[in-house]
Amino acid sequence: MGHIIINSVCKEYRNRRKIARMDESIKSKFQDPIPVLDKIDLEFNDGEMVCILGPSGCGKSTMLRIIAGFEAATSGRVTIDGNIVERPSSDNIFVFQNNGLLPWMTVWENIGLSVRQMQDSRSRREKIAEHIEIVELEGFEHHYPHQLSGGMRRRAELARALAVNPNVMIMDEPFSGLDFITHMKMREEVVNMHKFTGKTTLIVTHDIDDALIMGDRIVVLDGRPARIKMNHQLDFPRPRDFQKIPALNKLRQQIFLMEGISYAV
Question: Is the terminal CB of the chain with fewer CB neighbours within 10 Å at N or C?
Fold first, then answer.
């Protein structure tokens, strides 16, 4: 489960200020709707990992929030497994860009929030322990978020999301703010977890290399309002190495050029 169809989705924001701050002669253009997404049509298959690229402010995160049900589209619709998305659901888990762990709860307690509906306490404890093991946080169960490194906090967030057993995992810049080594390790963790769980996974990233190394497919948005500039299947074996796979390296160069960068380091 986790088949997503985005059908002609448009999104615009309106200026809702009632008291003008400027002269009437120039006010009207600032009150016009601000278009963000323009007729986005995409389909994500069950179990795919899709990485979404694009410049800052182009509407990537807005599109994710619409898919997750946190925002409504101005027009068009999103369906997941044939059901129209109208509100957030535990079947579609959103991992936010900023740390979402509750600071007054331990790792064990944060992950426990996802399985609090389980009536059998033994099964609940086993479920929490299982997901702590999946993200390799054994020994840190009773640590609070401030006692963990950035990468460990991200792993705890992933464990909490996975414990819900969602059909879709939606991640907004999951590696932002991490140091280089932790970033690389987390990228590998996410790829391994996707292989293990088989969940449909959508990831917004600014990092072209992340997208090409992780994704089963890459979607590039551009412009304002955002339109689809590229929707490309990545049929390359893993692990992926740009130096050993010429076609992948050529695609990398193409995307850098598409983003206005003439030379990919």
Answer: C
86 near 77, Cβ under 8 Å? no
Closest CA to 212 of 181, 249, 261, 264: 249
**Contact of 100 with 263, CB cutoff 8 Å:** no
Cα 257–chain centre separation: 24
Judge whether 42 and 217 are in contact, CB under 8 Å.
no
| Triad 41, 42, 43: Cα angle to 5° | 140
Question: Beta strand 217-222 with 49-53: parallel, antiparallel or unpaired?
Answer: parallel
- What is the DSSP pairing of strand 83-84 with strand 75-80? antiparallel
Interval 14-54: pLDDT, tens: 766 555 555 555 555 556 778 889 999 999 999 999 999 98
Other residues' Cβ atoms within 10 Å of the Cβ of residue 67: 23
Q: What are phi and psi for residue 234, nearest 5 degrees? A: -105, 90
